[in-house]
Amino acid sequence: MSEISSKVIKARVEGLFIASRAREPLVSRVQVTALVGRGLEGDRYCYRRGSFSHWPGQGRDVTLIEAEVLAALAASCAITGAQARRNIVTRGLEMNALVGRFLRLGEVVLYGVRRCEPCPHLEQLTRPGVMAALVGRGGLRADIVEGGVIRVGDVLTPLASRSGLPV
Prior knowledge:
Helix content is 17%, strand content 32%. It is of the alpha+beta class.
């Protein structure tokens, strides 16, 4: 088995979070429904009620962050998956490597649009130092290209193309 294949098999969804309105705390879910071109059902960005919903461009459907990054922050400015204000916490795959790539989470296919760099808004909602700690590792902004249900524990697989061939 190749090194990439073994990493892919280990990559999983570890947490799912939504908030119905901007600035509200994110709530953990065991599963969410991903709606093409909109976001996660029940989440503020799906209904264009997020703090940055009015900004133009792609990559507003869903955000992902690595559990490994959150663990690395434990000593300096510990934040939970919900406090990171990202929808999906993953383990086993680097999010920065997925910019410009398709990926499957359970029955859903996402397209990695750009890195999800931290902003002053995140630091205002959490604590000083969070923004600096997340620079370069704040996760991924993605668009939903095939909808369905995402569950905690689902395998995360990078795809060679939208057709679904694993890398």
